[in-house]
Amino acid sequence: QVQLVESGGGLVQAGGSLRLSCVPSGSIFSISRMGWYRQTPGKARELVAGISEDGGTNYADSVKGRFTISRDNAKNMVDLTMNNLKPADTAVYYCSLRIVVLRPGGFSEDDYWGQGTQVTVSS
To answer: Which end of the chain is less enclosed by CB atoms within 10 A, N or C?
Structure first.
């Protein structure tokens, strides 16, 4: 069974930096799209950054120029480097990977989610 393991959240002062990492465990065939989302209480989960299999990226307007998403295909890992953090970035951050696994009936592609990691930015 595939599970995503996230790391790197924590408490930081405004203007500081954090780096989040996400790696899947279990047997996988391939990973296409990788992304980071965030959610605050009472609000819908929003896309922060995404990266395709060929390295193409997209970002929420609120994080452009401050956050960078990257992937290591050899390690099946996706990172989110967050610089110049603001209190408005405070949220639970989730990684999401679109993973292909080989099951007895054939290949299956699904979106998998991490458990979430808290990022808190103090003013």
So the answer is: N
